[in-house]
Design goal:
With about 325 residues, the protein is of the alpha+beta class. The chain is about 55% helix and about 20% strand. It contains nine helices and ten strands. The strands form two sheets. Strands 1, 2, 3, 5, 6, 8 and 9 form a seven-stranded mixed sheet that branches. It has a three-stranded antiparallel sheet with strand order 4-7-10, with no helix packed on it. Helix 4 runs parallel beside helix 7. It is elongated, with a radius of gyration of 22 Å.
């Protein structure tokens, strides 16, 4: 009972602070520099957009660099710009910055692909908007970068967190909890790897719509359970977690493909991104359980009338996202 009452507050917090329009609102920018010769580089700059308006982020190269003509197009909710630059004396040891990044909430993943096949991957943040091009690649740097990206993606993916939160309403006892979380982890790890490595290809738009629909399904199961009509999710939560976990893994893969992977270290980046997702998910579940324990010790009481609120709140957000993403999907097919 205390878990149900605490989950009410958790649902209210996620619903109020992160609202319908903010699922996956914060997306990283992406900068790729591909070396042609000692002084020539091809650049790809992907800037996140809100609607049809791009964020005011701009690449600042060293003064020794002279840019050629560029081309820009709008693709999958981002502005993609390509151009070639020639830098006297090369870029090794030089600093590259992202103007405007300190004024945003987003990050930028920068990848420098050298002509010898090695690469440097760096995560830029509002507090650290610049980096220095190094002469040698670092596996540790790749691992750290993608580990943090994985943690951020799950903790900022409010739809994923709501799905996990909804499952907690239906799970009772440690064996069922461990089985449910393990099933979800195994499922999304499988599809994350398969989709990222190109073994399966599914358009991201319908996947995002079905992920939202999965939240509606689990919310309906919560309401049925409260009315004494336990459904599949209440009786076999690990089965539901596994099936929908496959879909959520495809969603993770779409975000990872959008960010990009270092060609020389794809398995390493994929592995640590997945570990980051698991760390973020485990942190969220443990936080919920720790706070629930605190409510139990404090013996905080709540009216029984609020017990139906979580199901309706989660279901309403899921329905909103389902309609929103379906309309975007239909609009994209026209």
């Amino acid at each position: 009972m205390y878990l149900q009452r605490f989950l009410f507050l958790a649902t209210l917090l996620l619903s109020g602070l992160f609202g319908p329009a903010q699922a996956h609102e914060v997306r990283p920018g992406y900068l790729e520099l591909r070396q042609i010769d000692a002084e020539t580089w091809d650049l790809l700059w992907k800037v996140p957009a809100k609607g049809d308006r791009r964020l005011a982020l701009y690449v600042q190269l060293p003064e020794s660099c002279h840019n050629g003509e560029s081309g820009t197009r709008f693709v999958n909710g981002a502005y993609v710009e390509r151009w070639r630059t020639r830098c006297s004396g090369g870029l090794i040891g030089r600093e590259i910055a992202i103007d405007g990044l300190p004024a945003t909430r987003t990050d930028v993943l920068a990848r420098v692909s050298r002509s010898d096949g090695t690469a440097q991957t760096v995560r830029l943040t509002p507090s650290a908007p610049a980096f220095t091009v190094s002469a040698a690649a670092s596996g540790w740097q790749v691992a750290r970068t993608y580990l943090v990206l994985g943690i951020e993606h799950i903790l900022l993916g409010i739809d994923h967190l709501l799905f996990v939160l909804a499952l907690l309403f239906l799970v009772g006892g440690w064996p069922r909890l461990i089985g449910t979380v393990t099933a979800f982890t195994l499922a999304h790890s499988l599809t994350l790897a398969a989709a990222t490595l190109g073994w399966i290809r599914v358009p991201p738009a319908p996947v995002e719509a079905v992920i939202a629909l999965s939240i509606v399904f689990v919310a309906a199961e919560i309401l049925h359970a409260r009315q004494g009509r336990a459904g599949l999710a209440a009786r076999l939560p690990w089965v539901v977690a596994f099936v929908f976990g496959l879909l959520h893994g495809l969603g993770f893969a779409a975000a990872l493909r959008e960010t990009g992977l270092p060609e020389h270290a794809i398995p390493l980046a994929l592995a640590f991104f997945n570990v980051g997702v698991e760390i973020g998910q485990l942190f969220f579940v443990l936080l919920i359980l720790a706070l629930e324990r605190a409510f139990r010790v404090l013996e905080i009481q709540w009216p029984r009338a609020i017990e139906l609120f979580p199901g309706y709140a989660v279901g309403s957000l899921g329905a909103y996202w389902t309609i929103q993403r379906t309309l975007m999907l239909v609009g994209g097919l026209r």
